[in-house]
Amino acid sequence: MQRWPYVISDHEILLRPLRYRDRAIWHQVRKENAQWLAPWEATRPAIESDGPLPSFFEMVRYYNKEGRELRSISLAIWLQSEKGEIFIGQITLGGIVFGAYRGAHIGYWIDQRYSNRGYTTRAVKALTEFAFHELQLHRIEINLRPENAASRKVAEKSGYHYEGLRSRYLHIAGDWRDHLSFVAENPKNFN
Asked: Does domain 8-138 have CATH number 3.40.228.10?
């Protein structure tokens, strides 16, 4: 089995951990896509104990620690071209649990300029394949807002099937929002 840092490729799509030197491009893409992502981005409920958001460097350190300990695998999505690598988004296999459950969930975001081109679907398929074969997970969920038609298409095209509604599941855009749950199960039966 591979060890951290995981690198997954699918033709011109490359999934790899963020590095400190990716700070400028990550901030630029996030800033350019702030309005595009706002309706779907997780927010934090107003709880007094929450401190400020981490810096980019703290975020990368946290992602590396979580990846090494196999609790969460957060990877940048890069498009490889003749001009080099272009940062186009991020994908996370989070909430990894082994034991009797052997499951996780996938979340992702994509730069609006690269949406509707199949890149997100390919990233989800590649990370799902990695999770099923390398980590031998049994079940992976994608939870998405009912009004996010593009994300629903990604889940369905990636082989996930609709399982049900999760009421007030996640804090998004300042309130607890309902989510649709899509699931894929490992076709290999580990007994």
From this structure: no
